[in-house]
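Entry: DUF6593 domain-containing protein
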Amino acid sequence: MRHGPLPLTFEDRTGQTTNTDFDEMYDRLFFHVARLPGRTTTKIYQMNTRASRHRSTLPIPNEALIHLDFAQDESLGTVSFFKSPLSGSIPMSRYLKKTTFFGSSLLRKFMGSDGREYKWGYRICAGQEWSCTTMDNMLVAHYDLKPPNVRTFDVTGNNLIIYELYTHMVPELIASFLIMRHIAQFNL
C-alpha cells in the first residue's frame, strides 16, 4: 500500500512546445505555455485553474514564471527565470549542457535551483519518450506518449510525470523539458 503524496501527473493538452497547457490530473497545479504568433519567446505561466476548451476566455497572469527566448532561426537563445531562486537570464546552451562533448544533443544536463544536477534524455528508459534523472540515475520525471490503441477526446493523452521528491522543481523541469523537445524538433 502506498503512503504519501502521489507523483504529479501533468496532462499535455496539445503536445506542442509553444502553445499547450500542463494540467495536473488531481488539480494540484496548472501551467500554460504560450508563444504569440510571429514571436520567438515562449512564456510559461502558472495558472489558478485547469485549461478547458474556453481557455482563451480566462485571463493570463501579468507575469510569466519563465521566458524561453529563441533566436529568429529557432536556434537556442536564453532562458530567463522570474520568481525563482535562479532569477536572471542564462544562455540555453550553458543551462542545458551536453553530457559529453561528442555525445547526443538529446542527452543534456542542468543544474537545478536546489544545487543538484539533473539530466534529460530521449528514449533512454523503456516505455518513456523523455526521461529526467539525477546524475546517480534516480528517476525524477518522464514524458509518456499515449498508447496508439487508446482513444482521447480534446487532449493528446501524453503525460509528464514528476515524482514527489522533485515537486519543488516543477517549473524548472517543465522549462528544461520544453527546451529539450525544441532541440529535438529543430535538430539542434
